[in-house]
Write a structure and sequence with these properties.
mainly alpha; 3-stranded parallel sheet; two-stranded parallel ribbon; binds tryptophanyl-5'AMP
Protein backbone atom coordinates (compact mmCIF):
# COMPACT_ATOMS: atom_id res chain seq x y z
CA UNK A 1 0.00 0.00 0.00
CA UNK A 2 1.22 3.50 -0.82
CA UNK A 3 2.08 5.66 2.15
CA UNK A 4 2.29 9.39 1.48
CA UNK A 5 4.18 11.88 3.62
CA UNK A 6 4.59 15.60 3.15
CA UNK A 7 5.39 18.63 5.26
CA UNK A 8 5.11 22.40 5.31
CA UNK A 9 6.86 24.96 7.46
CA UNK A 10 4.56 26.90 9.76
CA UNK A 11 6.16 30.22 8.85
CA UNK A 12 4.16 33.09 7.39
CA UNK A 13 1.01 32.72 5.34
CA UNK A 14 0.19 29.99 2.86
CA UNK A 15 0.64 31.30 -0.69
CA UNK A 16 -0.53 30.17 -4.08
CA UNK A 17 2.78 28.36 -4.70
CA UNK A 18 2.30 26.17 -1.62
CA UNK A 19 -1.30 25.55 -2.61
CA UNK A 20 -0.93 24.74 -6.31
CA UNK A 21 2.51 23.13 -5.94
CA UNK A 22 1.73 20.91 -2.97
CA UNK A 23 -1.31 21.23 -0.70
CA UNK A 24 -3.94 20.78 -3.39
CA UNK A 25 -2.22 17.54 -4.31
CA UNK A 26 -2.15 16.49 -0.65
CA UNK A 27 -5.92 16.79 -0.52
CA UNK A 28 -6.42 14.86 -3.78
CA UNK A 29 -4.25 12.00 -2.56
CA UNK A 30 -6.61 11.21 0.30
CA UNK A 31 -8.18 8.16 -1.28
CA UNK A 32 -9.15 4.70 -0.16
CA UNK A 33 -6.18 2.40 0.04
CA UNK A 34 -3.64 5.22 0.43
CA UNK A 35 -2.33 6.36 3.79
CA UNK A 36 -1.67 10.09 3.97
CA UNK A 37 0.47 11.72 6.66
CA UNK A 38 0.82 15.51 6.68
CA UNK A 39 3.07 17.42 9.02
CA UNK A 40 3.63 21.00 10.17
CA UNK A 41 7.39 21.06 10.44
CA UNK A 42 8.10 23.36 13.38
CA UNK A 43 11.57 21.88 13.97
CA UNK A 44 12.46 22.96 10.44
CA UNK A 45 11.00 26.42 11.02
CA UNK A 46 13.35 27.13 13.95
CA UNK A 47 16.46 26.58 11.82
CA UNK A 48 15.94 30.30 11.26
CA UNK A 49 15.09 32.00 14.57
CA UNK A 50 11.36 32.42 15.26
CA UNK A 51 9.83 34.33 18.16
CA UNK A 52 8.15 31.57 20.25
CA UNK A 53 4.74 33.28 20.31
CA UNK A 54 4.84 33.75 16.52
CA UNK A 55 5.75 30.11 15.99
CA UNK A 56 2.82 28.99 18.16
CA UNK A 57 0.40 31.30 16.34
CA UNK A 58 1.72 30.18 12.94
CA UNK A 59 1.10 26.53 13.79
CA UNK A 60 -2.55 27.29 14.46
CA UNK A 61 -2.85 29.38 11.27
CA UNK A 62 -1.14 26.76 9.12
CA UNK A 63 -3.25 23.92 10.54
CA UNK A 64 -6.40 25.99 9.87
CA UNK A 65 -5.22 26.60 6.31
CA UNK A 66 -4.55 22.90 5.66
CA UNK A 67 -7.95 21.88 7.03
CA UNK A 68 -9.58 24.60 4.92
CA UNK A 69 -7.80 23.26 1.82
CA UNK A 70 -9.47 19.90 2.35
CA UNK A 71 -6.99 17.96 4.46
CA UNK A 72 -9.31 15.77 6.47
CA UNK A 73 -8.65 14.85 10.09
CA UNK A 74 -10.43 11.54 9.45
CA UNK A 75 -8.73 10.54 6.23
CA UNK A 76 -5.23 11.83 7.03
CA UNK A 77 -2.85 12.00 9.93
CA UNK A 78 -2.30 15.73 10.51
CA UNK A 79 0.16 16.70 13.24
CA UNK A 80 3.05 18.88 14.37
CA UNK A 81 6.56 17.49 13.86
CA UNK A 82 7.91 18.21 17.35
CA UNK A 83 5.04 16.23 18.90
CA UNK A 84 6.64 13.02 17.62
CA UNK A 85 10.22 12.77 18.96
CA UNK A 86 11.05 9.92 16.56
CA UNK A 87 11.74 12.45 13.75
CA UNK A 88 14.65 14.06 15.57
CA UNK A 89 15.99 10.74 16.86
CA UNK A 90 16.12 9.28 13.36
CA UNK A 91 17.63 12.53 12.07
CA UNK A 92 20.60 11.97 14.41
CA UNK A 93 21.11 8.43 13.09
CA UNK A 94 20.85 9.77 9.53
CA UNK A 95 23.40 12.49 10.27
CA UNK A 96 25.89 9.67 10.78
CA UNK A 97 24.91 8.19 7.40
CA UNK A 98 24.77 11.37 5.24
CA UNK A 99 28.11 12.67 3.95
CA UNK A 100 29.27 16.27 4.31
CA UNK A 101 29.87 16.40 0.55
CA UNK A 102 26.20 15.60 -0.08
CA UNK A 103 25.03 18.47 2.13
CA UNK A 104 27.52 20.85 0.55
CA UNK A 105 25.66 20.45 -2.74
CA UNK A 106 22.27 21.57 -1.38
CA UNK A 107 21.21 24.71 -3.22
CA UNK A 108 18.51 25.68 -0.71
CA UNK A 109 21.11 26.02 2.05
CA UNK A 110 23.19 28.27 -0.20
CA UNK A 111 20.15 30.42 -1.01
CA UNK A 112 18.95 30.69 2.58
CA UNK A 113 22.35 31.19 4.18
CA UNK A 114 23.30 33.79 1.56
CA UNK A 115 26.68 35.42 1.85
CA UNK A 116 27.02 34.77 5.58
CA UNK A 117 27.04 31.04 5.64
CA UNK A 118 29.47 30.88 8.57
CA UNK A 119 26.74 32.52 10.63
CA UNK A 120 23.94 30.19 9.54
CA UNK A 121 22.73 27.67 12.12
CA UNK A 122 24.05 24.11 11.95
CA UNK A 123 20.37 23.11 11.82
CA UNK A 124 19.86 25.04 8.58
CA UNK A 125 22.78 23.10 7.10
CA UNK A 126 21.58 19.67 8.25
CA UNK A 127 17.92 20.49 7.50
CA UNK A 128 17.66 17.96 4.62
CA UNK A 129 18.77 15.18 7.00
CA UNK A 130 15.79 15.91 9.25
CA UNK A 131 13.59 16.04 6.16
CA UNK A 132 14.77 12.55 5.18
CA UNK A 133 13.93 11.35 8.69
CA UNK A 134 10.43 12.92 8.47
CA UNK A 135 9.65 10.77 5.47
CA UNK A 136 11.49 7.57 6.31
CA UNK A 137 10.40 7.33 9.94
CA UNK A 138 7.03 6.28 8.45
CA UNK A 139 8.50 4.23 5.58
CA UNK A 140 6.60 6.60 3.27
CA UNK A 141 7.18 5.92 -0.43
CA UNK A 142 5.53 8.94 -2.10
CA UNK A 143 6.08 12.62 -1.33
CA UNK A 144 3.91 15.33 -2.97
CA UNK A 145 6.04 18.50 -3.18
CA UNK A 146 6.86 21.41 -5.46
CA UNK A 147 9.98 21.06 -7.58
CA UNK A 148 12.10 23.19 -5.21
CA UNK A 149 12.20 20.16 -2.88
CA UNK A 150 13.46 17.63 -5.45
CA UNK A 151 17.09 17.91 -4.44
CA UNK A 152 16.19 17.23 -0.81
CA UNK A 153 14.25 14.16 -1.87
CA UNK A 154 17.20 12.86 -3.82
CA UNK A 155 19.24 13.21 -0.66
CA UNK A 156 16.58 11.26 1.28
CA UNK A 157 16.94 8.46 -1.25
CA UNK A 158 20.74 8.55 -0.97
CA UNK A 159 20.50 8.32 2.82
CA UNK A 160 18.02 5.43 2.67
CA UNK A 161 20.21 3.60 0.19
CA UNK A 162 23.41 4.09 2.18
CA UNK A 163 21.73 3.04 5.43
CA UNK A 164 20.45 -0.15 3.75
CA UNK A 165 23.87 -0.80 2.27
CA UNK A 166 25.90 -0.08 5.44
CA UNK A 167 23.67 -2.25 7.63
CA UNK A 168 23.09 -4.88 4.93
CA UNK A 169 19.33 -4.64 5.24
CA UNK A 170 16.56 -3.81 2.83
CA UNK A 171 14.90 -1.63 5.45
CA UNK A 172 14.12 1.89 4.23
CA UNK A 173 12.13 2.39 1.00
CA UNK A 174 13.48 4.91 -1.55
CA UNK A 175 10.84 7.65 -1.52
CA UNK A 176 9.73 9.32 -4.74
CA UNK A 177 8.43 12.84 -5.38
CA UNK A 178 4.95 13.38 -6.77
CA UNK A 179 4.76 16.64 -8.72
CA UNK A 180 1.69 18.41 -10.08
CA UNK A 181 1.47 18.53 -13.87
CA UNK A 182 1.53 22.30 -14.16
CA UNK A 183 2.53 24.85 -11.51
CA UNK A 184 5.21 22.62 -10.03
CA UNK A 185 6.99 25.92 -9.43
CA UNK A 186 4.82 29.00 -9.17
CA UNK A 187 6.92 32.10 -9.73
CA UNK A 188 6.90 35.57 -8.15
CA UNK A 189 4.34 37.93 -9.70
CA UNK A 190 7.08 40.53 -10.03
CA UNK A 191 9.93 38.37 -11.33
CA UNK A 192 9.23 35.30 -13.41
CA UNK A 193 12.68 33.92 -12.66
CA UNK A 194 12.38 33.66 -8.89
CA UNK A 195 9.90 31.42 -7.13
CA UNK A 196 6.88 32.70 -5.23
CA UNK A 197 7.96 32.52 -1.59
CA UNK A 198 7.03 33.47 1.95
CA UNK A 199 10.34 35.22 2.45
CA UNK A 200 10.17 37.77 -0.40
CA UNK A 201 9.99 41.21 1.28
CA UNK A 202 7.23 42.37 -1.09
CA UNK A 203 3.71 41.11 -0.54
CA UNK A 204 2.88 42.02 -4.16
CA UNK A 205 5.00 39.08 -5.36
CA UNK A 206 2.57 36.48 -4.01
CA UNK A 207 -1.11 35.67 -3.68
CA UNK A 208 -2.01 34.52 -0.18
CA UNK A 209 -4.86 32.12 0.49
CA UNK A 210 -6.23 34.66 2.95
CA UNK A 211 -6.19 37.58 0.45
CA UNK A 212 -9.59 39.12 -0.19
CA UNK A 213 -11.06 39.66 -3.67
CA UNK A 214 -9.81 43.25 -4.01
CA UNK A 215 -6.28 42.35 -3.01
CA UNK A 216 -6.17 39.44 -5.45
CA UNK A 217 -7.51 41.60 -8.30
CA UNK A 218 -4.95 44.30 -7.48
CA UNK A 219 -2.02 41.90 -7.31
CA UNK A 220 -2.91 40.29 -10.64
CA UNK A 221 -3.47 43.68 -12.27
CA UNK A 222 0.00 44.79 -11.15
CA UNK A 223 1.67 41.47 -11.99
CA UNK A 224 4.59 41.93 -14.39
CA UNK A 225 3.90 40.83 -17.99
CA UNK A 226 5.09 41.91 -21.43
CA UNK A 227 3.54 43.87 -24.26
CA UNK A 228 3.20 40.95 -26.68
CA UNK A 229 -0.06 39.11 -27.29
CA UNK A 230 -0.35 35.54 -26.00
CA UNK A 231 1.33 33.02 -28.32
CA UNK A 232 -0.22 29.87 -29.75
CA UNK A 233 2.43 27.45 -28.58
CA UNK A 234 4.28 26.94 -25.29
CA UNK A 235 7.63 26.87 -27.16
CA UNK A 236 7.16 30.60 -27.68
CA UNK A 237 7.09 31.14 -23.91
CA UNK A 238 10.75 30.18 -23.44
CA UNK A 239 11.94 33.73 -22.79
CA UNK A 240 8.64 35.05 -21.41
CA UNK A 241 8.88 33.83 -17.81
CA UNK A 242 6.17 36.12 -16.39
CA UNK A 243 3.71 35.29 -19.15
CA UNK A 244 4.36 31.59 -18.72
CA UNK A 245 3.79 31.86 -14.96
CA UNK A 246 0.36 33.50 -15.24
CA UNK A 247 -0.69 30.99 -17.89
CA UNK A 248 0.49 28.09 -15.72
CA UNK A 249 -1.52 29.42 -12.77
CA UNK A 250 -4.58 29.66 -15.00
CA UNK A 251 -4.02 26.11 -16.28
CA UNK A 252 -3.58 24.73 -12.77
CA UNK A 253 -6.79 26.37 -11.54
CA UNK A 254 -8.72 25.10 -14.54
CA UNK A 255 -7.20 21.62 -14.44
CA UNK A 256 -5.97 21.90 -18.02
CA UNK A 257 -2.62 21.90 -19.82
CA UNK A 258 -0.64 25.00 -20.72
CA UNK A 259 -1.34 24.27 -24.38
CA UNK A 260 -5.07 24.06 -23.61
CA UNK A 261 -4.97 27.60 -22.18
CA UNK A 262 -2.99 28.86 -25.18
CA UNK A 263 -5.54 27.33 -27.57
CA UNK A 264 -8.16 29.43 -25.79
CA UNK A 265 -6.14 32.66 -25.50
CA UNK A 266 -3.70 32.82 -28.46
CA UNK A 267 -3.55 36.28 -30.02
CA UNK A 268 -5.33 38.02 -27.13
CA UNK A 269 -3.73 40.50 -24.76
CA UNK A 270 -2.86 40.35 -21.09
CA UNK A 271 -5.27 43.20 -20.43
CA UNK A 272 -8.08 40.78 -21.38
CA UNK A 273 -6.52 37.75 -19.73
CA UNK A 274 -5.69 39.22 -16.32
CA UNK A 275 -9.24 40.06 -15.11
CA UNK A 276 -10.42 36.55 -16.03
CA UNK A 277 -7.47 35.03 -14.20
CA UNK A 278 -8.23 37.21 -11.16
CA UNK A 279 -11.88 36.09 -11.20
CA UNK A 280 -10.83 32.45 -11.33
CA UNK A 281 -8.48 32.93 -8.40
CA UNK A 282 -11.11 34.72 -6.36
CA UNK A 283 -13.73 32.04 -7.06
CA UNK A 284 -11.25 29.34 -6.12
CA UNK A 285 -9.77 30.93 -3.00
CA UNK A 286 -12.76 32.69 -1.39
CA UNK A 287 -14.34 29.51 0.07
CA UNK A 288 -10.92 28.42 1.35
CA UNK A 289 -10.22 31.69 3.13
CA UNK A 290 -13.68 31.65 4.68
CA UNK A 291 -13.11 28.14 6.07
CA UNK A 292 -9.64 29.18 7.25
CA UNK A 293 -11.18 31.89 9.39
CA UNK A 294 -13.73 29.46 10.81
CA UNK A 295 -11.05 26.96 11.85
CA UNK A 296 -8.73 29.67 13.18
CA UNK A 297 -11.50 30.91 15.49
CA UNK A 298 -11.88 27.42 16.99
CA UNK A 299 -8.43 26.92 18.48
CA UNK A 300 -9.53 24.07 20.79
CA UNK A 301 -10.87 22.02 17.89
CA UNK A 302 -7.71 22.53 15.80
CA UNK A 303 -5.43 21.69 18.75
CA UNK A 304 -7.47 18.51 19.40
CA UNK A 305 -7.08 17.43 15.79
CA UNK A 306 -3.31 17.97 15.99
CA UNK A 307 -3.03 16.10 19.31
CA UNK A 308 -4.90 13.09 17.92
CA UNK A 309 -2.78 13.25 14.77
CA UNK A 310 0.42 13.22 16.86
CA UNK A 311 -0.75 10.10 18.68
CA UNK A 312 -1.50 8.31 15.43
CA UNK A 313 1.81 9.41 13.90
CA UNK A 314 3.79 8.15 16.90
CA UNK A 315 1.99 4.81 16.78
CA UNK A 316 2.97 4.45 13.12
CA UNK A 317 6.63 5.34 13.63
CA UNK A 318 7.23 3.40 16.90
CA UNK A 319 7.67 -0.10 15.39
CA UNK A 320 9.88 1.31 12.61
CA UNK A 321 12.11 3.06 15.16
CA UNK A 322 12.29 -0.04 17.28
CA UNK A 323 13.47 -2.13 14.33
CA UNK A 324 15.90 0.61 13.26
CA UNK A 325 17.50 0.62 16.75
CA UNK A 326 17.87 -3.14 16.60
CA UNK A 327 19.48 -2.97 13.13
CA UNK A 328 21.98 -0.31 14.26
CA UNK A 329 22.75 -2.16 17.51
CA UNK A 330 21.49 0.54 19.83
CA UNK A 331 20.19 -0.12 23.34
CA UNK A 332 16.49 0.32 24.04
CA UNK A 333 15.21 -1.41 20.89
P1 LIG B 1 7.86 24.76 2.37
O1 LIG B 1 7.23 25.01 3.69
O2 LIG B 1 8.84 25.77 1.87
O3 LIG B 1 6.76 24.58 1.26
C1 LIG B 1 5.69 23.66 1.39
C2 LIG B 1 5.38 23.03 0.05
O4 LIG B 1 5.06 24.05 -0.91
C3 LIG B 1 5.87 23.87 -2.08
N1 LIG B 1 6.17 25.20 -2.63
C4 LIG B 1 5.96 25.53 -3.92
N2 LIG B 1 5.46 24.83 -4.96
C5 LIG B 1 5.35 25.47 -6.17
N3 LIG B 1 5.71 26.77 -6.35
C6 LIG B 1 6.23 27.51 -5.33
N4 LIG B 1 6.57 28.78 -5.52
C7 LIG B 1 6.37 26.89 -4.05
N5 LIG B 1 6.83 27.32 -2.83
C8 LIG B 1 6.70 26.27 -2.00
C9 LIG B 1 7.14 23.17 -1.59
O5 LIG B 1 7.77 22.47 -2.65
C10 LIG B 1 6.58 22.25 -0.53
O6 LIG B 1 6.09 21.05 -1.14
N6 LIG B 1 11.43 21.37 3.32
C11 LIG B 1 9.99 21.56 3.09
C12 LIG B 1 9.13 21.02 4.22
C13 LIG B 1 9.39 19.61 4.61
C14 LIG B 1 9.02 18.46 3.86
C15 LIG B 1 9.44 17.35 4.65
C16 LIG B 1 8.36 18.27 2.64
C17 LIG B 1 10.00 19.20 5.75
N7 LIG B 1 10.02 17.85 5.79
C18 LIG B 1 9.25 16.05 4.21
C19 LIG B 1 8.18 16.95 2.20
C20 LIG B 1 8.63 15.87 3.00
C21 LIG B 1 9.72 23.04 2.95
O7 LIG B 1 10.44 23.87 3.46
O8 LIG B 1 8.53 23.31 2.35
Amino acid sequence: MDRIFSGIQPTGDVHLGNYLGAIRNWAKMQQDGIETIYCLVDLHAITQWQPPATLRANVLDMASALLACGISAEKSVLFVQSANPHHSELAWIFSTVARIGWLNRMTQFKEKAGKHKENASVGLYTYPVLMAADILVYHANLVPVGDDQLQHLELARDIAQKFNHDYEQDFFPLPEARLQQVATRVMSLRDGNSKMSKSDPSDMTRILLKDNADTIAQKIKKAKTDALPLPDSSDRLEDRAEARNLLAIYAALDGQTLQGVLDEWAGKNFSDFKPILADKLIAHLAPISQKMNEYASDETEVMNILAKGAQKATTLSAPIMSKMREIVGLQGS
